[in-house]
Design goal:
- By secondary structure, the chain is an alpha/beta fold.
- It contains 18 helices and 11 strands.
- Helix content is 44%, strand content 12%.
- Helix 14 crosses helix 17.
Length: 383
């Protein structure tokens, strides 16, 4: 677990929420956040807590979740299936091959882990899961990391995307063996027409993380404590990495960048160490009316109102500048104020990414404005 890391911020209270929804209609949870915001760490934490194959109490007894009334009831009590979808996708050349490989691996692992059971159809994944749940008296908890990798790797292949969603629906929806399904990704669940194939999920995204807002990144209180421990300038950390805000929480920091700054003792632009500015450039140069002017104003520190409702939750279907801006919210390039429905550049680190992108795009007047403003960006959610 990440408990062994030099810097560990205790986010285990999230487990109190997932405990509360186990075996209820709200047991389907989809959490979407940008890269560098701790999705995989959280998924690994949940798998370690729920998995019945190991005694992990020693890891959790000193954490915040241990004080919750539900802690002992659910600790190491479930059959856990942990799926890293990117892992399966990287081993195959198509979505169909990806699906087949995952089903075969799961069937093999399940039958190895639960020998001696008799199945009506041993080649059917859902039948095997149902049989195990009945015979062991325990449902399954599905922890699915990088669930949306199909929509990033096959961004223009609508047929493959739909096949994947249909597979996920058949695996999870209305299945009595599902005690909890927790999915993480960058994008919210893909819409087809007016509905989603996975409409049983409650979604917690960068546009509205709801009760899970404090688990998206580091909070002000957490960063203050870290800055004190590492003797770092809190104001400088705030200027560089703060600026995301949600309803009721006005300070959310990029956790990966904060940790990198503390460990290196420098206030660097760590975002570009994990992703180049071309990722941003590809979207801001899309030829939608008004997009260049909006980027110019954002670089000047202006907030712009955006309609997030038309976004199709993929990386290829755009019908307006608002769709592009909504994607940039989910990618972490823009902050979003749900009350005012406005977007903004959250901090100095992200402002630098915009500066690099507009310069590469050849937007000279925008680049000039960015140069004038460089170093003056501040988080606009502070009250």
């Amino acid at each position: 677990m990440s408990l062994n890391s030099r810097i560990y911020v205790d986010k285990s209270s999230l487990i109190a929420y997932t405990n509360a929804v186990i075996d209820t209609a709200q047991r389907f949870v989809c959490v979407s956040r940008p890269r560098r915001f701790g999705k995989s760490v959280t998924a690994q934490m949940l798998a370690a807590y729920y998995g019945r194959e190991a005694d992990s109490g020693g890891q959790f007894d000193s954490l915040r979740i241990a004080k919750d009334n539900s802690y002992q009831k659910h600790l190491n009590q479930y059959n856990v299936i942990f799926l890293n979808m990117q892992h399966f996708l990287s081993q195959t050349q198509s979505v169909l091959a990806f699906k087949d490989r995952m089903e075969k691996e799961l069937l093999w692992e399940l039958q190895e882990a639960y020998p001696g059971l008799h199945y009506f159809d041993s080649a059917s994944l859902t039948t095997v899961l149902q049989t195990i749940a009945v015979k062991t008296g325990s449902g399954f908890i599905f922890i699915i990391d990088e669930w949306d990798c199909i929509f990033r790797e096959y961004k223009n292949d609508a047929d493959s995307q739909k096949r994947y969603l249909d597979f996920m629906r058949s695996l999870l929806k209305d299945q009595p063996y599902v005690s909890l399904a927790y999915m993480t990704g960058i994008l919210p669940i893909k819409k087809y027409g007016t509905h989603s194939a996975l409409n049983m999920f409650d979604e917690f995204s960068m546009t509205n993380p709801g009760p899970l807002a404090s688990f998206v990144g580091f909070t002000d209180e957490e960063v203050k404590s870290l800055c004190k421990d590492y003797q770092m300038d809190e104001a400088e950390i705030k200027r560089m990495y703060d600026g995301y805000c949600f309803d009721g929480i006005t300070h959310i920091y990029n956790p990966r960048s904060v940790v990198s700054a503390l460990l290196t003792g420098s206030y660097d632009h760590f975002w570009n160490k994990t992703e180049t500015f071309e990722a941003l450039l590809n979207y801001i140069v899309l030829n939608f009316q008004g997009l260049r002017d909006i980027v110019t104003e954002l670089l000047a520190g202006v907030r712009k109102r955006v309609n997030t409702a038309t976004f199709s939750n993929d990386m290829a279907t755009f019908s307006s500048a608002d769709d592009v801006l909504t994607l940039l919210i989910h990618l972490g390039y823009l902050g979003y104020e749900i009350k005012t429905k406005e977007v903004f550049i959250p901090n100095e680190e992200i402002a630098a990414e915009f500066c690099n992108a507009v310069e590469a795009a050849g937007w000279e007047h925008v680049a000039d404005r960015a140069d004038q403003r460089q170093g003056l960006y501040r988080a606009v959610c502070r009250l």
